[in-house]
Amino acid sequence: MFTIPDDFLHGPFGRLDALDAGVPARVLEGVRFRRLHKGVYVHRDHDMTWADHVEAARLALPESARTTATTRLRQLGFSLGNAWPLHFVVEGDLHLELDGVFLHRTVKMPPSDDAGVSVEAAFVALCADSRLIDAITMGCVLLNKQRLDLGLLDQVLTEEKWRRGVPETAYVLPFLDGRCRSMKEAELLSYVVFAGMPMPDVNVAIEVAPGVELTPDLRFAHYEQVVEFEGGQHQGERGQYLADIDRYALYRRHAVPYELVTKERMRSPKSVVRLVHHALVERGYDGPPPHFGEHWDSLFRPITDLVRRLRAA
Fold first, then answer.
1. What does each C-alpha distance from 126 to 2, 11, 138, 144, 219 come to in angstroms?
2. Nearest partner of 226 among 282, 157, 289, judged by Cα
3. Which DSSP category does 77 fall into?
4. In which domain of life is the source organism classified (predicted)?
5. pLDDT by residue (tens digit) across 12-45?
6. Structure pTM?
7. Strand partners, 89
8. Are the C-beta atoms of 102 and 87 separated by less than 8 Å?
9. Domain ranges of the chain
């Protein structure tokens, strides 16, 4: 039996590379390998990761193809929604169908490195196909982590107005808030703002006692009301879990009113807003109640629809 070189046991590879390394064609077509795409194989015992699938698609596409949109952002550590399909972009009018891959075509490639397009270009591509809430949450975190350069983004919006996603990105920009450290914080803030609630402070440290500072996710300073998001990682990571217990104990010890918004509660955005509104009323808020009208509904619509409606107005 032919001994397979180690390089071809632990990830996807191209057919030509295997042949050049001395792997016989009959072995590639045998039971020890699976074909992922035309000319791309993997050993049957290898468990494919998401990154492996990206590499397999890259091997099946022209060398000039680059990851874009959510795929590029996921590569950089910013995950949003479903990981599939994979998004690649290529210059020219190439028509090629790959399972699990959406191939974007452009007349001019955006700035890229060896793996994918720039963050700015990926964000523009994301805005072209996403709901407003998804683009806001991604954009806020990219700004907070200093990964989105607004100067470079403005160059795209002003110099390449023909590029797909530019009108949608311009629509999203006024809603981005770089104070949000996580997508869930940005989502929570968006719900509050789009329902017409008062604008809270975001991640601003408060002194609850001499020498004791806490940094709540949201704080409505006029009403001294704190709102914290409690995500799954807070329970799954022991260190974070213990830190949360200590933080909430300090809130209670120093009589700081706070509300917890869990990931389960976030599945019902209107309920989250009503929870915040009730907490504010308890603290003396007598302003208008949450309004779930057209502005609120826009959060959950594709940005392309919102742009189209704006142009028709």
1. 46, 28, 9, 18, 30
2. 282
3. T
4. Bacteria
5. 999 999 999 999 999 999 999 999 999 999 999 9
6. 0.94
7. 66, 104
8. yes
9. 1-48+55-60, 62-180, 197-290
